[in-house]
Amino acid sequence: MSETVNTFEAQQQGRPTGPLVRGYEVIIGFETHAQLSTASKIFSRASTAFGAEPNTQACAVDLALPGTLPVMNKGAVERAIKLGLALGSHIAPRSVFARKNYFYPDLPKGYQISQFEIPVVQGGSVSFFVGEEQKTVRLVRAHLEEDAGKSLHEDFIGQSGIDLNRAGTPLLEIVTEPDMRSTAEAVAYAKELHKIVTWIGICDGNMQEGSFRCDANVSVRRPGDKLGTRREIKNLNSFKFMQQAIDYEIRWQIEEIEDGRAIEQATVLFDPDTGKTRAMRAKEDSADYRYFPDPDLPPLVIAADWIERVKAAMPELPRAMAERYVRDHGLSEYDAAQLTQSAALAGYFDEAVNAGATPKLASNWITGEMARRLNAAEIGIEAAPVKAQQLAQLVKRIADGTLPNNAARQVFEALWTGEGSDVDAIIEAKDLKPMNDAGALDKILDEVIAKNAKNVEEYRGGKEKALNALVGQVMKASGGKANPAQVTELLKAKLA
Predict the structure, then answer these.
(1) CB atoms within 10 A of CB 136
(2) 292 pLDDT more than 80
(3) Can you tell me the distance from the alpha carbon of 113 to that of 465, in angstroms, rounded to the nearest whole number?
């Protein structure tokens, strides 16, 4: 694979134009820092545990004190290999570490050990859905590097404190081509990448603790014009703020251009309190960092058999699982993608199906009623009061005709609130068994027909929707116990 990265302009060739904002095309690329799930740092044995007292987890190696030498963490390399395999990337058999030189208070060495010319992971792609439309974003690279420390400003009057606990924490910086054309695409990409890194276990994905940090490069232009100047929004640590920040930046750039002012390349921060971005510093280019090979670290060599061992231990990937759901269970690609949003959600679906639930019905309930309730309660599927076995029991009763949809929702409510734990017992207690008395149902049908002469006339006149209204009246009169399909057929027969 070529080690030469194309220019930003060249990367745009053949890319589609997305929805225009006030007549401008939006171009977005991402750089994501995923903290690797190792117990120790990338070049030392110091702990990476979150929440320790400031400066208690920074050792001499992390600070590059005289006489110290960095030693590569094998676990960090293995996690980079996993990412490359998950994204269909080329894993370089030989990659090189470099020193990225810049001066900042939380970087006592005066440089960051990173990779530049030859990264460990090259190319690849991430596919995801925006609504029901599938999108694909190409990746440039993913390279290993160490994190810097952290400057603290809140508790120091007129000064800043420096916490070096994060110095040396292992990161994978994942860089995309500028392929995204809307805020919706950008957020969907970030969510998909977050899903992948947590699914394969290389990152815990905790955005609040800084384990998954996104930088968005945003520019705008008139369709067909030369590419605009990009500004980088740093350290977006929630999907909600990500959307707000990119939307604001797009509006700001358009307004600046239309007011006759030029966009200057810069690094900006998003303030959630104001909903605005503000410039932090002029954006550096790679030449400003004066990269050169790190003299203390040999090239990273990854043998083919190591890649094969890692591959053999990999879990089934979400995209492969989604394809299996489409193939084996007849689900739509969209539904399969929804069910594979997390390993826990997919596991819940699999458990329900293995317990006898019809896959399509189980999918509908999980992505519909269950998702609505989880979102409202702000909990994950792991904490759902309704267990997979219970959902399977509910779905089986719907499939065998015991429960119409209205009655099924009542049973689900009882399961969710803890009013009951056994589906059949809840059906019995609430008297939700379907109406089997043909005479009683026939009487209800006659009464509904008699009281709804207008709907009867409209149906006989060719308006099919009028029949739905009649079915609804019968269901209401039966207390939801009648079978809607049976009611429909009986009404058709009576009104023929």
Answers:
(1) 10
(2) yes
(3) 68
Residue pLDDT, tens place only, 238-257: 999 999 999 999 999 999 99
Average pLDDT over residues 129-150: 93
Calculate Rg over the CA atoms of the chain.
29
Q: pLDDT higher for 156 or 10?
A: 156
Contact by Cβ (8 Å): 18, 182: yes
Q: What is the 3-state secondary structure (H, E, C) of the chain?
A: CCCCCCCCCHHHCCCCCCCCECCEEEEEEEEEEEECCCCECCCCCCECCCCCCCCCCCCCCCCCCCCCCCCCCHHHHHHHHHHHHHCCCEECCEECEEEEECCCCCCCCCEEEEECCCCCEECCEEEEEECCEEEEEEEEEEEEEECCCEEECCCCCCCCEEECCCCCCEEEEEEECCCECCHHHHHHHHHHHHHHHHHCCCCCCCCCCCCEEEEEEEEEECCCCCCCCCEEEEEECCHHHHHHHHHHHHHHHHHHHHCCCCCCCEEEEEECCCCEEEEEEECCCHHHHCCEECCCCCCEECCHHHHHHHHHCCCCCHHHHHHHHHHHHCCCHHHHHHHCCCHHHHHHHHHHHHCCCCHHHHHHHHHHHHHHHHHHHCCCHHHCCCCHHHHHHHHHHHHCCCCCHHHHHHHHHHHHHCCCCCHHHHHHHCCCCCCCCHHHHHHHHHHHHHHCHHHHHHHHCCCCHHHHHHHHHHHHHCCCCCCHHHHHHHHHHHHC
Reply yes or no on whether the pLDDT at 341 is more than 60: yes
- The reply to whether the predicted model has a pTM over 0.85 is no
**In this predicted structure, what is the pLDDT of residue 296?**
95
* Beta strands 266-271; 231-236: pairing state: parallel
Residue 229 has pLDDT above 70, yes or no: yes
Place of tokens 């068994």: 433
Q: Kindly report the CATH class assigned to 438-495.
A: mainly alpha
Q: Per-residue pLDDT averaged across 396-417, rounded? A: 89
Q: Which of 195, 207, 179, 222 is nearest to 21 (CA)?
A: 222
Range in 21-25, 158-162, 258-262 the model is least confident about: 158-162
User: Which amino acid, one-letter code, is at 259?
Assistant: D
The single-letter code of the amino acid at 262 is: A
The CA angle 300-301-302, to the nearest 5 degrees, is 120
**Between 48 and 463, whose confidence is greater?**
48
Q: How many angstroms separate the CA atoms of 54 and 163, rounded? A: 5
Provide CATH 1.10.10.410 ranges for the chain.
438-495
Phi, psi torsion values for 220, nearest 5 degrees: -135, 155
